[in-house]
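Q: Could you write out the predicted structure for this multi-component system? I'm mainly interested in how the pieces pack against one another.
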Amino acid sequence: MSRTATTLIRLAMLIVFLGAWEVLPRAGIVNPMLLPPLSQVLAVLGDILARSDFREAMAVTAAEVVVAFVIAVPIGGALGVLLAENAYLGAIFRPMLFYVFSIPKSIFLPMFILAFGIGFGQKVAYATFSTVFIVIMSAGAAVESVKAEYILVAQSYGASRGQILRRIYVPSMMPILLEAVRISMIFNFTGVMIAEMYASRTGVGHMIANWGENFMLPQLFAGVIVLALAAMAFNELIRSLEARCSRWRS
Amino acid sequence: MNRPSPRTVRRLIGLAVLVLWEAVPRLGILPELFVPPLTKTLVVLWSDRLIYLSGLMVTLYEVAFAMLIACGAGIALGAVVGGVAVVRNLMLPVVSSLYAIPIVILYPIFTAWFGIGSESKIAFAGVYGFFPVMLSTAAGIRTIDEQYLLAARSMGATLPQLIARVIIPAAIPTVLAGLRLGGALTIIGVVVSEMLTSASGIGYLVTINRTILDSPRVFAAIIVVLLLSIMFDVAVRAIERRTLAWQNAGRRVASTEDVRAARLPAPATA
């Protein structure tokens, strides 16, 4: 199938989805109380974007996401490289890391609340905690993806450490590092959202949880759209960078 | 110097955690409100065992139905998306984009639709597990060796024979991986949603005791959740050992990309 055909079919699916969202509640096939028509949601979306409390909440959420990310990625990256380069430490901690992935990290939220309260610091601490493990895992995978042969060849041609780092490690690891950034952001954003929905006085997560409890569905859907679009936009940005970097690799 | 084996070190770390859990609050290094001593937590867990057991039953009931959605739909659609090239090119990028959305923001919608009972947890955990299971199945299906299909077809196998004798046996490892992933994720999804808005289940016991600052009971509930994930992991390992012979059945020498995708760690974002 050609590229244009693929794009057209995807576009058609999107139009059908959005059309159904508008038509089904209007026609009364779906209860409009439960699924407000798209046009109504978009009108409400315009209203809430103009509201200063929503903008403040967005700024708080964005700040929490950025700060947690900036803390979690270097720490996780350093630990991941350490576990990948040191076989002994890797053998000790790898299985523990795998176990951590199978437990709900949110059960530790009460401890974060006791230790940090329910403000900014607690959101950042919890999101860092819920992100750092996937960063450790991905950084390890990035290191292991560097082919030993390349390093050997470079060394035997007399490349310096700096050259090996610049010419082999960075280009080889770049796509996987970007992938790590992309996946980590999904974890990070989810962590902030859960913490805000669980116990908070501000943030978009807190607002949508409130709208849900008060059955304000148009506002709720509008908030969900904003959050979903923000998450997808960041994801697509990193994916396009990834695609660009993969070209140098092959 | 001889270094102790990694397994020994892990056991020592585990032991140290348990000892510190008891010693740190007893010595007053951290207040008992933050970390109640292990023994105190276990005593509470035992004396309230009926409450925790009934909470666990609610959670398990929700996990069972959510797993049905996540694994059933995830494996079926994943097989179609992975197996049919047209669908794959069309849908895989779309699904990976949707995967970036933190699913937890949908939970308020589910509580508005289905109430705060078990239905909203089942819906949430089902959707939460669905995407990773589908992506992992789609990746796993692609590691099946097409030579087997070609050989069977050239020997005159009919479509039912092809499905029963080639495709299903070759897909078993992928299906098992999907079940493992789906199970772990739906447990997480159910516990998270119970913590957010609910009136029963083990996650609810964490939250309700947190709001009244009853730390030993919070930690007792945390222990139950940890035991639940350990037990699920042990059960899956036992099943995997029994099906070891199938684990690599029908694999072609897969590209590193496929192997990497198929071995993706359970991406439990919550």
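A: Regarding packing and overall arrangement: Residues 1-33 of chain A form one domain.
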